[in-house]
Structures are given as C-alpha cells and as structure tokens.
Amino acid sequence: DSPYNYTWHIPFTYTTNAERVDKVIILTEKENIVKLSKPATWIKANNDFRMYYITNYDLVGWKKLYHQLVTDHTIFTTTDRIQMLSDLLSLVTADRLDITFPLQFLTYMKKEKEFGPWKLATEHWHHLM
Prior knowledge:
By secondary structure, the chain is α+β, with helices and mostly antiparallel strands. Helix content is 39%, strand content 14%.
C-alpha cells in the first residue's frame, strides 16, 4: 500500500492452458477480477514480456506453470519462458521468494533448446549461489 494512496493502471495480457489473450486489459483498481472466457487450470500473465513489470504468482500458480513447462514447455513462446525465468530469478535476488522452488523450476530446462532461456539462467546463476 502506498502512503499517498497511489494506484497504478496496469496493462494486462494473459495466456491460460485454454487460450491466449493478447488484447490489453487495463487493471485500474487495487483489486481487479479478470473473467476468463474458458475454464483454465493455470494462467500466465504479461504475454511475451510486453509490459515492464515483474509478475509474481502464489506458490500454487508457480507450480502449475512449472508442471506445464515439464509437460510441454513449447506451449509458451521463448519470450514467455525467458520472462518466467527472469521474474522468478529477480524475485529470488530481491529476497521476495525462497530459493528452493526456483531451483526446482530450473529442472524444466533439460528440455530447453532455445538460447535465450539458457543465457538468462546462466547470467543469474551467481545470484542463486
């Protein structure tokens, strides 16, 4: 909470296991509810890292994204995979997230063939030690 009652207008896009929504929804309240047009088991915010903010999920949300990555990581674009890693590792670096789960999250990378996620993970590796 802001001591001055500032609120932010946050542009929001998302992908779920059922659909990808690239239309920008502007979140204007302290609490917004985004109604999904199709039932979903997971949601990933900020498609292709188009907006400049870090997304943090509760542990259940992170675990659902991790299980999707382990099952089929290509359902996410390479940029989305880079963003998830960037957000996760940035949260660890800022002491906003315990390191235990991010280390598990990185195990999906045994299937990763793109350069970008590997580059990001190796650049952040020293923060994890």
